[in-house]
Design a protein that fits this description.
The structure is a homodimer of 155-residue chains. Chain A is elongated. Chain A has two domains: 41 residues, Arc Repressor Mutant, subunit A (Orthogonal Bundle), CATH 1.10.10.10; 73 residues, Lrp/AsnC effector binding domain/regulation of amino acid metabolism (RAM) domain (Alpha-Beta Plaits). Chain A has 155 residues and is an alpha+beta fold. Chain A starts with 6 loop residues before the first helix and ends in a 10-residue tail after the last strand. In chain A, strand 3 and strand 4 form a beta hairpin. Chain A binds a DNA duplex (17 and 17 nucleotides) through helix 3.
Chain lengths: 155, 155
DNA sequence: GATGAAATAGCATTTGC
DNA sequence: GCAAATGCTATTTCATC
């Protein structure tokens, strides 16, 4: 599953995770390769899927979503059909920013954003009616450590 | 807190969250503005802090981190001094990809990556010795819904 | 098999409107 | 916000180690 990465790849990954808003020439200087070589490396990293995408990360509050909550979900039933219905509901709700199946005390962990309490409640209600048996809501108060790059450096 | 955003800003934010790996000219065509105008808009979005940064998002497993876990933490003590020590420990551990103070059943929600079980355990032990009273670990099994853009479109 | 250097086309960015 | 202009950059090609 893991892709083979040499030293230069690791530096590129580190830098691109930190700040992808740079010219290829800057990157080239950074890693000590020619622009052409750097371009090839980066293309390969994208094609191999190690780099999934380049995206803008927003400040949720400034973008109009002052409420951010972790929602942990226990499903009422675990048959594939029930799960499928729940999955569809999750994917259809734009306020759900990410969702993962997990192993542990609960079944699914969600990250939900909302413009106000009413919108949040709407999401929670819909989850309840689409297969969630128990919902636990954790209101995000403050960032302790911001979204950080994967520590791809050699150990 | 929220920044004033008009229709064009919202389109730009939507597109940049989806794929920031495009030329300014492409973006301009997309929103129907001149390249210069588009550049100004994007610059303003970055300066205002709505756009925090442009980053590469990696596939954790392909980047060498097959283990990803949510770790919920209850602190042993809640005095500022104890919290500070815990915060420092969290910020110092590169395997902790993000961390948020939350309100609810627990105090802090972490996202942790590791190359193997030993590395994960090392993180958990360190958290325990730095103020965590109770740790609950949720192993991420499978992505139900991938990291998605904030739904900034007008309602 | 990947890198570097050179060349071209296209882009980012500025200025004046 | 637009249009035009300039200086750089992305990207290709080809030679090279």
């Amino acid at each position: 599953m893991a892709v083979k990465l040499d030293e230069v790849d690791l530096i590129l990954l580190r830098e691109l995770q930190e700040d992808a808003d740079r010219t290829n020439v800057d990157l080239a200087r950074l890693v000590g390769l020619s622009p052409a070589g750097t371009l090839n490396r980066v293309r390969r990293l994208k094609e191999s899927g190690v780099v999934r995408r380049i995206t803008a990360r927003l400040d949720p509050a400034k973008a109009g979503f002052p409420l951010q909550v972790y929602v942990s979900v226990t499903l009422a039933r675990h048959e594939p059909r029930a799960s499928k219905g729940f999955e569809d509901a999750v994917r259809a709700m734009p306020q759900i920013i990410s969702a993962d199946w997990v192993a542990g005390e609960i079944d699914v962990m969600l990250l939900v954003v909302a413009r106000d309490v009413a919108e949040l409640q709407q999401v929670l209600v819909r989850l309840s009616t689409r297969g969630a048996q128990r919902l636990t809501t954790l209101l995000r108060l403050e960032e302790l450590k911001p979204a950080s790059p994967l520590p791809v450096a050699p150990r």
